[in-house]
Design brief:
- The chain folds into 2 domains: about 325 residues, 5 Propeller (Tachylectin-2, Chain A), CATH 2.115.10.20; about 190 residues, Jelly Rolls (Sandwich), CATH 2.60.120.560.
- A hairpin with a 4-residue loop joins strand 20 and strand 21.
- It contains 4 helices and 38 strands.
- The two termini are about 40 Å apart.
- The strands form 7 sheets. Strands 27, 29, 30, 31, 32, 33 and 37 form a 7-stranded mixed beta sheet that branches. Strands 9, 10, 11, 12, 13 and 14 form a 6-stranded antiparallel beta sheet that branches. A 6-stranded antiparallel beta sheet has the order 26-38-28-34-35-36, with no helix packed on it.
- The longest helix is centred in the N-terminal third of the chain and has 30 residues.
- By secondary structure, it is mainly beta.
- Bound molecules: 2,5-dideoxy-2,5-imino-D-mannitol.
- 2,5-dideoxy-2,5-imino-D-mannitol binds next to strand 1, strand 5, strand 15 and strand 20.
- Keywords: Glycosidase, Hydrolase.
Length: about 575
């Protein structure tokens, strides 16, 4: 009883402190005028509910965690400009709901010989008694990449505002056979069979890109295991590896420390390389300290044995954490700009994080499912919906006449004329979905598709981003393509307008196709088939902005499709201060 009372008092104090922090910072901003005027160069492309620093450059999410009722996000940040600079710091922000954020002072800045040229990416691990520590990569005085430890100065501060670097730093230096400029981004630690700790570090070795395995008893003295946790012969340097268990049944998350028992979980091995985040699913036998992929060691066309991608658009250097408060695993990922360095300098900002996504294993066990955290739904306003509406061949339908520059949309389609789908001669696994999406873009007349949404569309449709599906038949098997076509997204020159595409693992004979799309001025996050296939894009419309942005549904196939349900919400702004 007494303990419960004390707990409640503690929670109350934490809540008050948080309120004070938010109101103090927010109050400061509003007392000096509109937040946009104070901190942010006025830009109509600036997002309103995606996480970003108040100005300048951001890349990788680092060390996300939940601690004493507060979510923390650290991130790679250049406080001096809107461009990447290797002498980067760890920005730090806190939140109660993963959507509204208050920025704190930088957690880590280059200060010592072991990180004087930059505090690069890393992770948070919870040691015994639930004590968080940071492992990060430092660029030392000779630009060698070494691993360092930082510890909160005050564990009872839920905001963990001050971090002290260990006097033992650097605690790991590049081993023989590893390039000293390619040895970085330590993972969150997990317990080894001997009661010690294990981590993986990304890099380039003589046997290819790898997640190198390290062990330690005290978190300070580390030894390298003979074999990597996983590696890939020809893939080049591995950045930001992530390794974690997922439950075989259900969408709850699981941590190494709570219930990752054999027969109950599978393991995810993820690495960032060549601008994409790849993963594979498999098993891990702690006693053998070996991860084995379910798909064997077969290499795909891109020379990697990590066959799947989290997101088939712009999404990189991601990191997950286990949210003990809601028993879920959450994924953060960095979304770079699609315009030039010069544009970023003019804008005064660059880089976003996706809306954090809950992540779990699909029922088939073949892939992961991602879905925006439910907290984002608090921003939904002005609901519009329609049901059972036929979308005839070659037609377009305006869904939102008013401003659609910030919306959340959920739509599902049925196709009564599936058997009319176009045939392709190639077997499905020889098809390149991104190429198919570029060749059969949104304007091409197919049969069952292309159909989907036109977001950030101008009134005359001359500007729009199309997110759509196309059903094809390859050797008696239906193949569902999901595409994001940016080719008409902006009249601006010099912007990357690559079309993205991926397969959706559903059987359209038995399932509807659903699409959820989050639009926030210059970012479009799309989730096909309830989160099986995800595509994120950056776009910079010039006409379809603010009150002039519209939302349409379209069908450029010859066959009708039916919108079985469509729901749209306008989204209000998040408080990011
Ligand atoms: N970004 C960091 C590195 C990491 C890369 C530097 C991935 O630690 O490998 O900002 O985007």
């Amino acid at each position: 009883m007494v303990t419960k009372g004390l707990e409640m008092v503690k929670c109350g104090v934490v809540a008050l402190y948080f309120l004070w922090l938010i109101s103090n910072r927010f109050g400061f901003v509003v007392s000096h005028g509109d937040i946009n005027e104070v901190h942010i160069p006025q830009q109509f492309q600036r997002t309103s509910y995606h996480f970003h620093p108040l100005k300048n450059w951001m890349n990788d999410p680092n060390g996300p965690m939940y601690y004493k009722g507060i979510y923390h996000l650290f991130y790679q940040h250049n406080p001096n400009g809107a461009v990447f600079d290797s002498k980067i710091v760890w920005g730090h922000a806190v939140s109660r709901d993963l959507i509204n954020w208050a920025h704190l002072n930088h957690a880590l800045e280059p200060t010592h010989p072991f990180d004087i040229n930059g505090c690069w990416s890393g992770s948070v691990s919870f040691l015994h008694n639930n004590k968080p520590v940071i492992l990060y990569t430092g660029l030392d005085s000779s630009f060698q990449q070494v691993q360092n430890l930082a510890i909160p100065s005050n564990f009872s501060d839920p905001f963990l505002e001050i971090w002290t670097k260990s006097s033992h730093n650097p605690i790991i230096v590049p081993p023989n056979g590893v390039e000293r400029h390619r040895f970085r981004d330590p993972t969150t630690a997990w317990p080894g069979p001997d009661g010690g700790w294990r981590i993986a570090i990304g890099g380039q070795t003589s046997y290819g890109g790898a997640a190198m395995l390290y062990g330690s008893e005290d978190f300070v003295h580390w030894y390298q295991s003979r074999f990597p946790l996983y590696s890939s012969r020809d893939s080049g340097n591995w950045e930001c590896p992530d390794f974690y268990p997922v439950k075989l049944n259900g969408s709850n998350g699981v941590d190494f420390l709570n219930g990752s028992r054999v027969g109950v979980v599978k393991y995810v091995m993820k690495a960032s390389l060549n601008s994409h985040d790849y993963y594979t699913l498999g098993s891990y036998v702690p006693e053998k300290e070996k991860f084995t992929s379910d798909s064997g060691d077969g290499f795909d066309l891109r020379g990697t044995n990590l066959g799947l991608r989290y997101d088939y658009g712009k999404f990189y250097a991601s990191k997950t954490f286990y949210d003990s408060s809601q028993k879920r695993r959450i994924l953060w990922g960095w979304v770079n700009e699609s315009d030039s360095r010069e544009d970023n300098i003019k804008k005064g900002w660059a880089g976003l994080q996706v809306i954090p996504r809950k992540i779990w294993l699909s029922k088939t066990g073949r892939q992961l499912i991602q879905w925006p955290v439910k907290e984002v739904e608090k921003l939904r306003t002005n609901h519009f919906s329609l049901y059972n509406k036929e979308l005839r061949g070659r037609s377009t339908m305006k869904v939102l006449g008013g401003s659609a520059s910030q919306v959340d949309t959920e739509v599902s389609f049925e196709f009564p004329y599936l058997e009319e789908a176009e045939r392709v001669d190639t077997r499905w696994f020889d098809l390149d979905p991104q190429l198919l999406c570029s060749k059969r873009d949104a304007s091409v007349n197919g049969r069952v598709g292309p159909f989907g949404l036109l977001v950030l569309a101008s009134n005359d449709l001359s500007e729009h981003t199309a997110i759509f599906f196309h059903v094809l038949k390859a050797h008696n098997r239906y193949v569902v393509l999901m595409c994001s076509d940016q080719s008409r997204s902006s009249f601006r020159e010099g912007v990357d307008k690559t079309t993205y595409g991926a397969f959706v693992d559903i059987d359209p004979r038995h399932e509807k196709i659903s699409l959820r799309t989050l639009v926030d001025r210059s970012i479009v996050e799309s989730f096909g088939a309830k989160g099986k296939t995800c595509i994120t894009s950056r776009v910079y419309p010039t006409l379809a902005v603010d009150d002039d942005a519209r939302l349409y549904a379209f069908n450029n196939g010859t066959q009708s499709v039916v919108i079985s349900s469509l729901k749209v919400w306008k989204m209000s702004n998040a408080q990011i201060v």
